[in-house]
Design brief:
The complex is a heterodimer of chains A (about 200) and B (about 300). By secondary structure, chain A is mainly alpha-helical. Helices cover about 70% and strands about 0% of the residues of chain A. Chain B has about 300 residues and is mostly helical. The radius of gyration of chain B is 22 Å and the shape is elongated. Chain B folds into 2 domains: about 40-200, no CATH class; about 205-298, Tetratricopeptide repeat domain (Serine Threonine Protein Phosphatase 5, Tetratricopeptide repeat), CATH 1.25.40. Classes of the chains: A mainly alpha (about 200), B mainly alpha (about 300). Chains A and B meet through helix 1, helix 2, helix 3, helix 4 and helix 5 of A and helix 1, helix 2, helix 3, helix 5 and helix 6 of B.
Chain lengths: ~200, ~300
Amino acid sequence: MLLAPTASTADFGARQASAAGELSFDEVYEAHVDGLWRCARAFGVPEQGVADLLQDVFVVVHRRLPELECSVGIRTWLTRILWRVLSQQRRTFYRKANHSELPDEIVDHAGSTPFDSTERAQASKLLSEILDSFDEDRRAVFVLAEFEQLTAPEVAEALGVNVNTVYSRLRLARRDYMKQLARLQARENSLAPAQQRRT
Amino acid sequence: MKRHEHMGDHPKMDRALLNQARSEMSPTSAQRASLKRGVLAAVAGGAMVGGAATAKAAVSAASTSKAALSAAATKSASTAGLGFSASASSLTGGVIAKWSVAVVLVGASALGVGALVQQKRAERSSPVHVAQSSRAVEVPREMGLRRYDPPSIPIAGAPIVNLEIPQEQHPPAPVRAASREREDAPSRTADAPVAPLVAGAPATTEPVTDSLAAETALLRDAHTAINRGDAAAAISLLEAHAQRFPGGVLMEERVAFHALAMCHTSAQEEARAEVERFAAQYPHSPQLARLRRACSPH
């Protein structure tokens, strides 16, 4: 078969035989929508844009799922699609970007109290602020590795870059992250000392 | 920042914030559900909802493939779309029955709805005309339904197991997808004659195991009927859908298709009334603008 490049299928060849239990779109959607959504948010796509972006992503996923021969690398595969769609349509999805604004409705996470929500909302705001200070590539690596906890080789596959590049970006991103975190925490503490004492 | 000197492993990497932010940045169940609806609708409705992407995909497949075109010479443009999905699934070595239904739908309906008008002409014309009218789908105003240009992920090429595909293969100009595909993969299409499935792949060949696939199949068939100009058949399929899936996920599409089918009958008054009812029921439906256009008096 012409299209199947022997080099890349070789890796999967062994598993291919047993990969008959194909995944349904529903399964894939339910298992991965949260992760992809989070990822898109962490990449800096505003909430409005995330729905549009993920719709495109899942349409692609739907179409290509039959090609997926092995579910082992599905997260990487999905992330890769997300990254591609995003890269191609960057301007569109980021257009309404306004990360400094939090959504008014912080909603319906089961079992959460208003206090939890507020805290999480603050965390998410803080994180967005830190990530916004990163350049795009570093941000992507950091988000996938630290936030989504992909391994470095997975990150490399998802972003289509070299593993060494991933490691080096990740190192720098971590350094920046800690710097920014310290800075922002210092600021928060000076602004709201009362809140710190509460716990 | 002395304690961060060990940059390799960052023992002090503080992940508390990351962990806290994680759940906040996840979708709410409402967002999750609405997204899924959107995806299913885009998949089922082809050009009517998220059509530009799927239309382009099908178009690129159609223009990539001489085999598909000549096979489609006497068929409608949407069969070129079917041809594509045939090649896609045969490439994976085994047709995955359930999904091939859905994939076929994407190709078929994308071209089908997108080129609703052109297609009727194409059906009776030469392959060259099929190609031309298909390509016209790339730019029409219907695509304005979407707030943005959907992506042109090169779905036909690049099997996903190959994770080393250079980025350059996918430049950011979606409109060029068709011609790029053609350059990229001439041998593939030449060698994978896609005609067989084109001729006979009724959605019902394989037992559909889940209701989404069944819904999808029904709507796809209804859609094909509309494209054939067989409004009566479409309407009866849609009524079957209504009976089997009164509260189905694709209800909105069903109602829209029904109105669309009605527009092709002589009951224009009734059709327009139906469109208006649809408008009242789904005021924000992305299908609305197109429906109105299709049903407007000339």
